[in-house]
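Fold this sequence, please.
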Amino acid sequence: KKIEPNNLLEKNKHKYIVSGNKNKKMVSLIFLVDKNDIEAFKLIKEAADNHYDEAQYILADFYIKGKGTTKNYTQAVKYLRAAAHQGHLDALMKLANILAEGKIYTQNIMNAHVLYNVASVMGAKDAAEKRDELEKLLKIEDLLAVQANAENFKPEPSKNTSFIRQTFGNSMRAYIDTNLKSSKGVIINFN
């Protein structure tokens, strides 16, 4: 189903949705209203399955909140891990929070420590403080192991994520908010 730009409301009333197409090797950015969460979920999932980190992060939030789908914390963690593996800072922090708390997914303080440590190096607010709090719960041998894991972490952005970051910076949503003056969508072709 194609959504025409002239059927859309003003930009500030929409969410930004990135949708990928494996066959056409393209990602299109469109805006959807809150009332259409099922369609938004489908489009976000398509982009997430095409390895776009921002879409993976957004899709995880859809699974956590049950927007456009049923709540599924296992799927949420799966997509957060995929985005975090690519170096998505918000995904690193959200996944670390989930693993540290152990409320919606199995608690794993060691993995949470690694993620907070990596996020701290990348400049995430509060990451160092949260890491230091978890440190108090770890044995010295575990602490040494998680520090080694954090030092060895190297983000591996997908080709799609790399292309989008090179084109729009680290946040396509911020780019759109800053640079797009109309409510028309953006189509990005991958060569």
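The CA atoms of residues 40 and 74 lie 20 Å apart. The longest strand covers residues 15-21.
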